[in-house]
Amino acid sequence: MHLLKDNILQPQPHTKPITITPEVIPPLITTFLARSFNISVDMVDYLWEIVKDLVWTLPSAAEEQTEEEISFMIHGHPLGLTAHILYPPVKTCINPECTAWQLGSLLKKEQQQCVVVFTNASGAHPAWSVHLKCRVCNTNYHHNYSVRGKTCMYYGGMLSHIQVAEHQYVELKLAMQCIDLMQIAVLATNCARLYEIAQACSSTRCNKPWQFLTSLTTREVLDAFVIVSLLDHQQAQGGKLQVPHDGDQKDRYTAAMHACTKQIMIHGQEELPHACYRCMRIFASPDGTLQSTEVIVTDGITVGWPCCAIPQCKNPLVTNHCRYCLEHQNLECLCAMEGCTQAVTSDLKTGKSQKACNDPVHAKMEVANTKSSRTGKSKTQRNKIVKLNNAMDSSVHDITNEVESIPLQDGDEWYEHEIATGAVCLVQASVTMSTGVSDLAPNEPSDHVNGPPACPGKDAPVKLKAVFLLAIRCHVG
Asked: How far is it, in rounded angstroms, from Cα 84 to Cα 351?
């Protein structure tokens, strides 16, 4: 009725106060109510005469929700009651091998725990999560999934709230909003900050102490992205998501993500077989046969992923801070200088392990690398060079053996050592990107790719290479 108040008041005489309930409602409103409740127009007029004073003073849906939240905060929390209680979507055991499922007996053994629910419209709320356990097969049913042994099986479809940590839930609408923002290059950290700013002035914000913090974190935003994406993929495939129930939260979905990626690599996505006359052209070849061609649009920049610093190594890294995979982890103790097998040294002040040995030249190379890594120009240069190296790598199998012997990293960066002065400096190649053609001028010799030729009257500095950082691998379309 709150939505119809203005429509009821407008046709009333101007002498009627708005604080007094109208005696008669307009015919348009009468017809609407009659059709909505499937009753006659006369019945609407009769009921209005009885309940008009009551329904006219009812609060709006937003006002009613605010009053309920405040009531639970003041009176419910001391009694262990909250406005949000998350139960499993099932009330009986769904394990077909369990006798309780065959008998259809209800799940009555429960366990409660304090949680925080992050909603899209009204901020963070304290809540309770109730787990129901089958007494026969010991399957534990949570709000999102069931646990049997060490396996966590999600229910089919999407639920209204996604569990992103042991005591944190994110409303599905909020998770989808974060996913939409991240698809337009908004960082997960900024998604969490935007949520905190947007909900800072919420009238229903919980000001009373609760067991857990009510601030959305970057990790929870990322976990919501991963879980919703995996659930959506499984739903499209007609399956159910299974993950281990033990171990750390950061490692729980790794295998499922790899399986999802592999499935897409093998079978593709539904957009792959698309073809229309706007994106594909059919033409006749000289021999009379019909051929088709499709256009690939690229901006010349490809985003890669961290990988082992050993060329062609496909083993995954333990973390993105590691230079080497587990198989080559022993190289962390050796000098990063190419060709040097001496052990690394430690900083005398901090005791932190260095990446170079006690050779003065190698130590100066590490210092030069540290200074360079702090500049924005160096980072931009490395991002540019990634595509060049991988383009060379992708074509190396289709050209002659003579070209195969060219080191792929020689166009990246190197260190020059002036023997006369002992100075060491980092040199980065000037790279201009192009797609499908060589960056060299038509008459430019190929041995000048790393810069202009050295002056014959001077001693050329010694060119040195080192592996101080992890590598970045990407595919060029």
From this structure: 51
- In whole angstroms, what is the distance from residue 393 CA to residue 400 CA? 13
Q: Is 447 helix (H, G, I), strand (E, B) or coil?
A: helix
Between the CA of residue 443 and those of 423, 439, 448, what are the distances in Å? 34, 12, 11
207: exposed, middle or buried (C-beta count within 10 Å: 0-12, 13-18, 19+)?
exposed
SS3 (DSSP) at 6: helix
**Matching residue, tokens 């995979």:** 325
pTM: 0.63
Q: How far, in Å, CA of 393 to CA of 403, rounded?
A: 11
Q: Is 242 exposed, middle or buried (0-12, 13-18, 19+ CB in 10 A)?
A: middle
What is the rounded CA–CA span in Å between residue 82 and residue 126? 7
Contact 361, 411 (CB under 8 A): no
**CB 318, CB 326: distance < 8 Å:** yes
Strands of 155-299 (E only): list them.
Answer: 161-165, 168-171, 242-244, 280-284, 290-294
Q: 130: which DSSP letter?
A: E
Q: In degrees rounded to 5, what are phi and psi of residue 346? A: -120, 150
- The low-confidence residues of the chain, meaning pLDDT below 70, are 1-2, 77-78, 80, 201-211, 296-304, 374-412, 429-463, 468-477
CB 164 within 8 A of CB 116: no
* pLDDT tens-digit series, residues 186-231: 889 999 999 988 877 654 455 555 667 778 999 999 999 999 999 9
What are the backbone dihedrals phi and psi of residue 55, each rounded to the nearest 5 degrees, phi first? -70, -25
